[in-house]
Amino acid sequence: MALSRVPGDEELYVGGIFTLRRKTTLEKTGITHIVSVLKYDFKDFEDWEKYEHLNIEVDDVEDENLLGEFENSGKFIEEGLKNGKDGKKGGVLVHCAMGKSRSVTIIIAYLLRQYPHHTVSSALSLVREARPMAEPNDGFMAQLELYKEMGCPRDIDAHPKYQRWLYQREVDLALAVGMVPDRVRFEDEEVQEETEASGREVELRCRKCRRTLATTPYLVKHLPTPPKPDSTPTTEPISSLADTLPPSPLHTACMHHFLHPLSWMRPALEQGLLDGRLECPNPKCHAQIGRYAWQGMKCSCGIWVCPAFSLQKGRVDEIVKRGENNQGQGTDGVSGASGADKSGAIGIRLPPGMRGKGNL
């Protein structure tokens, strides 16, 4: 199985490096462009000048960055298929060492780029029709999922999700040797994705001085969906720097609000410590409102968040700006107040037993 044609209308092939020595096969299949996804010196191959060549020097390891190459390789493949020789369409071979992981990843990325109806799973299934051994490593599969989630942008480098992903890699590398990252990425100082506001929007305020600390876009909804009966709950660490999981009805069981790093945390985070206190940024307040831990923190719900930037629920108020919670809470209400509680609706906290008894 040296050379496999990807099903479809295009002359797109995937294979291993030994395919390059089958000159007759390459000529019969009309290969005009070659994408090599490995570190190798190709000077020993005969007639190498006959082909347009793109070399992506990466190893087949999970932490290798292939995501940043998807647009360059996708554009090369697209142009190679359209423009062959003598005015004819071309044929493109994508290969790595075995034609199993790296080359298949590049092929899938091209399919996602060109055919928006494809998912990562469906594109992999298509390749496997011709090459059953196709199996990108887990790291490459995660990068493909992120690429699809990003919308397969033409400018990958500028995309906020890619920038956040790169920073997460920096953090992971630093934590692996027990160090704090060289830089802190404050999310409120970065370009954010343009998304339509929808659903429940909240604002977290210091309970002591009412200073706004965070809003919905910077909250980490860290709980997984409730486990099915007879199944094991999710306990793997999640990253507070990566995209968040869908919200869960169990969120009220947690004693923490987890955030992305925000600029008001700068005095604490730039001390270079692995963990420490978070204080209210109001210079007249400075109340302790939470903690941070680059190495991660376990929430009361049992989920590890890493790195962790946490506000204690007992130290902040959750103000609902839009939408309703499970208790029918209305717009601009304090968390826990009903829609009919007018005093709660304007953010006034009443002592226990005083709700619903009118003005003080």
Automatic annotation (TrEMBL):
EC id: 3.1.3.48
Domain Tyrosine specific protein phosphatases: 71-132
Residue ranges of domain Tyrosine-protein phosphatase in the record: 4-153
CDD domains tied to this protein: DSP_fungal_YVH1
Keywords: Hydrolase, Protein phosphatase
Single GO molecular function: protein tyrosine/serine/threonine phosphatase activity
Stretches the record annotates as Disordered: 220-239, 323-360
GO cellular component: nucleus
Superkingdom field: Eukaryota
Signal peptide range: none
UniProt enzyme class: hydrolase
Active site: 96 (phosphocysteine intermediate)
Short name of any one Pfam family annotated for the protein: DSPc
Family listed: Belongs to the protein-tyrosine phosphatase family. Non-receptor class dual specificity subfamily.
Stated name of the protein: protein-tyrosine-phosphatase
Provenance organism: Hyaloscypha hepaticicola
Lineage: Eukaryota, Fungi, Dikarya, Ascomycota, Pezizomycotina
